Amino acid sequence: MKAWLCSRNAHKARELERLLPGFAIEPLSADDYPPETGETYYANARAKADFGRERSGGREWVLAEDSGIEVSALGGRPGVESARYAPEGAPAIEKLLGELDGVRDREARYVSELVLLTPDGEELRGTGTLEGRIAEEPRGREGFGYDPVFVPEGETRTVAELGDDWKERHSHRARAARALAAALGVAVVLAGCGGTDPTSKRVLRAFFSGGRAARSLGQRFPHDPGTLPCTVYVKGVKLQASCSTDISLVRPARAVVTLTEAWNHGATAHTWFFFIRRDGTVQSVIQEGAPAPRT
Ligand code: IMP
After folding, report:
1. Could you tell me the distance, in angstroms and rounded to a whole number, from the CA of residue 114 to the centre of ligand 1?
2. Omega of the bond prior to 229 within 30 degrees of 0, cis?
3. Per-residue pLDDT of the chain (295 residues; tens, 9 = 90+)
4. Which of 144, 147, 158 most suits a substitution to test ligand 1, by most atoms within 8 Å of the C-beta?
5. Which residues are marked as active site?
6. Distance, CA 145 to ligand 1 centroid (Å)?
7. What SS3 class is residue 71?
8. Phi, psi of 246 (to 5 degrees)
9. In the chain, what are the domains?
10. Which residues surround ligand 1 with Cβ inside 6 Å?
11. Under a CB-based contact definition with an 8 Å cutoff, are residues 168 and 15 in contact?
12. What local confidence, expressed as pLDDT, does residue 10 receive?
């Protein structure tokens, strides 16, 4: 399914495509996006989505996001004005570190608000936050924006050091995408197996116990979220899998469930997509990378 992303930020398009499996996210290029002058992330995201709906002809899926960083010692600034605080990258980081020079309270959080408009114009929303603190100096090369100075709660490295794979599982945008997916009637779970994120565990458990098809799927692909390694059965063959990523996508209105399992052997992750009929039988399997090891 194609969804237009109302953003000029190529990083966001890449991140969101990884976060919303089943959607091909295409950035909507336009020079005249409405100014982000709303008082809330939601107001800005909705304005971008309305603009995108009009530009794309009104009958397409449209996705919009607004995000920002809120710093406690600055009374929550730059917040909804993050994009206008200073030019993104080094200048914004320099300004932020300057404002926090000598300040001991480094508490901060990222916020992401997603708005999805269906072809019928129905609005679905997802919000996500990531708590953390501002480092004394920039470190790391991945991510974008304030990532080189943002250290998530419970971590010692910055988001730019933790990298894009970490972001895909834990970022404010990842959390907003999961909330959006839940609103869509879709269960999307990242880092279900081996992941310690309580929300993923809860959603995964709820998914595998909700309804006959999902229960049958759960029997076929038994999961115990949060455990490593996990065991997966494919055509009756038992596979030991060290799942680093586990995405389950169910659209109740459709006859297909997509289950993605990634196995790590050595440094490589292999992904299999199982297209499963509603009765739980496998319709087809698409495989990326080499086969998972058989044990
Ligand atoms: P907007 O959502 O396009 O208005 O931009 C929000 C601004 O917040 C970006 O330009 C970044 O400066 C910052 N921001 C939002 N998300 C992230 C992130 O994941 N990493 C780093 N900075 C971010």
Report:
1. 13
2. yes
3. 688 999 878 788 888 887 776 678 889 988 888 888 899 999 999 999 999 999 988 888 899 999 999 999 999 999 999 989 999 999 999 999 999 999 999 999 999 999 999 877 888 888 999 999 999 999 999 999 999 999 999 999 999 999 988 998 899 998 898 778 666 643 333 333 434 445 445 545 555 555 565 565 556 555 554 444 455 444 454 544 444 334 344 443 332 334 444 444 433 444 444 444 444 444 444 444 444 444 3
4. 144
5. 66
6. 6
7. strand
8. -145, 110
9. 2-183 (3.90.950.10), 198-288 (no CATH)
10. 9, 36, 65-69, 82-83, 88, 92, 110, 143-147, 171, 173
11. yes
12. 79
Q: Which two tokens stand for residue 170?
A: 């834990």
Beta bridge mates, 17: none
How far are the Cα atoms of 78, 111, 176, 229 from residue 165, in angstroms, in the given order? Answer: 26, 19, 16, 19
Q: For residues 139 and 191, is the Cβ–Cβ distance under 8 A?
A: no
Would you say 43 and 50 are in contact if contact means Cβ atoms under 8 Å apart?
no
Q: What is the pLDDT of residue 210?
A: 55
**C-alpha to C-alpha distances, 289 to 239, 247, 260, nearest whole angstrom:** 16, 17, 13
Neighbours of 198 (CB within 10 A): 10
Provide the 8-state DSSP code for 48: H
Nearest Cα residue to 127 out of 210, 202, 199, 59 = 199
182: tokens are 């839940």
| Beta carbons of 291 and 239 less than 8 angstroms apart | no
Nearby residues of 26 by Cβ (< 8 Å), 6 or more positions away: 2, 3, 4, 5, 13
Q: Which of 221, 261, 222, 258 is nearest to 245 (CA)?
A: 261
